[in-house]
Task: inverse folding
């Protein structure tokens, strides 16, 4: 009787393994199918020069002109997108890599996009390095 019980339990285990593999394959094929049928994102369009790049990556327009254009086009000063949201609910506040990290701006609580910085038009990496250097010199 114990031999019969062992063979039945082995059959059940084998069937369970087959079903687990089937479910894993189904999950992978479903994910691949969703990826194939997902609509393509449109190419970004700069709000400043209308070129096919993100507004935050624009190097055609100077930071002073960008600041004026942000006001005239009613863009958010934090994310450089259309200002149809309150600044406190701007998504960039949660993902701070696009914010200006210059020590002078942070001390004044001047929250703005790094490409709109009036102090020093540098990349965010350079701003962090300069902030660290300023802190060490103080």
Result:
């Amino acid at each position: 009787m114990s031999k019969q019980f062992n063979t039945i339990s082995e059959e059940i285990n084998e069937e369970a393994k087959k079903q687990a593999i089937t479910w894993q394959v189904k999950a992978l094929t479903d994910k691949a199918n969703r990826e194939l049928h997902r609509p393509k994102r449109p190419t970004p369009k700069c709000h400043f020069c209308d070129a096919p790049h993100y507004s935050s990556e624009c190097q055609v327009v100077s930071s002073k002109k960008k600041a004026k254009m942000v006001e005239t086009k009613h863009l958010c000063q934090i994310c450089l997108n259309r200002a149809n949201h309150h600044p406190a609910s701007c998504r960039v506040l949660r993902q701070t890599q696009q914010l200006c990290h210059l020590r002078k701006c942070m001390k004044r609580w001047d929250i703005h996009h790094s490409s709109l910085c009036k102090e020093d038009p540098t990349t965010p990496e350079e701003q962090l390095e300069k902030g660290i250097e300023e802190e060490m010199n103080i």
